[in-house]
Design goal:
The chain contains nine helices and twelve strands. The protein is α/β, with parallel strands linked by helices. Helix 1 runs parallel beside helix 2 and helix 1 runs antiparallel to helix 8. It starts with 12 loop residues before the first strand and ends in a 24-residue tail after the last helix.
Length: 287
């Protein structure tokens, strides 16, 4: 789920099932916007996979950039497929990467395959897509089988409760093995109770955690997307801070003592206490 960018897509659309729509981007010849029940979910430019329209996706791209030396192939698990935007980005920046995308909506997967298909990279690597619940698939995967796990799953504009708990984070930690990077799109607004709890939850499982977002969101001024990053070892926060500060809309990285202050008093979420992320306020996705 992402905030609207303010640019108007063309009215031409391709409708799937369960309120899923594909709209052409008015400003980019081969780009599409995916909406689910009217909520922007994903954007992809087929001619330019390096172009990342949504701010939070750009920040996820930065995390992938700093996860390993430039160009090195990665094993990447995408929980939530959308238009496979990040999978396209990884294929373009790290040829030969092995990727698996998990998506619960079979009709959406078929729509993407027909209308906005992936192009095989020069190395012949492919992105596999598996239909299923993100956590169920995650728990079936072999330990240490991925270098990066990205969680970006929403239903009706909210992250399902079972994808917000310490048990879910532990399952992600298991497939990363002794190294790697976990990243999640966390949507929240004032007073950021959900985001604070998610950071506390990640801290209960991982060695190092940081948050990346627009300063206005972190200052509890508005609803928005916060990228949570966590790892079994130290995160490359210095490089991430430089990349994020250079964005068209500069972001802020919370880490160390700044994150201590942000999280203070928040408790980790378990399966027994988990709830979906907050519903976005009316009008937050208006163009």
């Amino acid at each position: 789920m992402a905030e609207a960018t303010g640019r108007r897509p063309r009215s031409q659309r391709r409708r799937g099932e369960a309120g899923v729509e594909l709209l052409r981007d008015a400003d980019r010849r081969a780009a599409w916007l995916l909406l689910a029940d009217g909520v922007p979910q994903s954007h992809a430019d087929l001619d330019d996979p390096l172009y990342l329209e949504f701010e939070y996706v750009r920040r996820l791209g930065h995390l992938i950039d700093v996860a390993a030396p430039a160009g090195r192939p990665l094993r990447v698990l995408h929980l939530g497929a959308g238009l496979l935007t990040l999978a396209r980005y990884v294929a373009a920046t790290r040829p030969g990467s092995r990727q698996l995308a998990v998506e619960i909506d079979a009709a959406l997967v078929e729509l993407v395959r027909r209308r906005v298909p992936l192009r095989r990279d020069a190395s012949g690597a492919r992105v596999r897509v598996r239909i299923g619940d993100a956590r169920s698939v995650l728990e079936q995967l072999r330990a240490g089988s991925f270098d990066v796990v990205v969680a970006d799953v929403f239903a009706g504009g909210r992250t399902p409760a079972h994808l917000t708990s310490a048990e879910f984070a532990a399952a992600a930690r298991r497939v990363l093995g002794g190294a790697g990077l976990f990243a999640a799109n966390v949507a929240d607004g004032p007073p950021l109770a959900h985001a604070r709890a998610q950071a506390a939850t990640a801290r209960a499982v991982f060695c190092d955690v940081c948050l990346v977002a627009d300063p206005g969101v972190l200052r509890r001024r508005r609803f928005g997307n916060i990228v949570l990053a966590a790892g079994p070892g130290p995160l490359p926060t210095a490089a991430l801070t430089r990349l994020t500060a250079a964005d068209p809309v500069p972001g802020r990285v919370l880490h160390g003592e700044a994150l201590d202050r942000f999280v203070a008093g928040a408790r980790p979420v378990t399966d027994a206490t988990a709830s979906p992320s907050p519903a976005p306020p009316p009008g937050v996705f208006a163009s």
